[in-house]
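Ticket #4471: structure export looks truncated?
Reporter: QA, pipeline team
Priority: medium

Steps to reproduce: submit the single chain below to the structure queue and open the exported record.
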Amino acid sequence: MTERPRTVDSELVRAAEHVARTRCHGDNHTVAAAARVRDGRIITAVNAYHFTGGPCAELVVIGAAAAQGAYELDTVVAVGDRGRGILPPGGRRRQVLLDYFPGIEVIVGAGDRVRAVAIADLLPETYVWADHQLDAD
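Actual output as written to the record:
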């Protein structure tokens, strides 16, 4: 797929940066995420690092959104603590975002290359879980 230019949700980026700056402390919470709900709300969350693994900020924001009755996310961004800037989602997060919200946009890049891209553009030729489910008869 070819990326098409999209407007970057600067308010969403600022919300994630604020949470990263004010809520990420120590080694347990190092990344903040913010998601825009279709109704305009912004949901924020932080990762829960643990040496055995742990949910990344983008996955926590999905749960936080659901806990607030928000099931239609349009855009998501993750920001690192200590001024590390916008972080692209890793493979597992990309797959989960695609499966939950096939039309979601993800803000990626740095400096003058910050842009919003469709999750499908970050996972070309991907496996789409819903496409491979058997119909229950």
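Status: closed, not a bug. The export was complete when the record was re-opened. Leaving a note from the reviewer for reference: The two ends are 34 Å apart (CA to CA).
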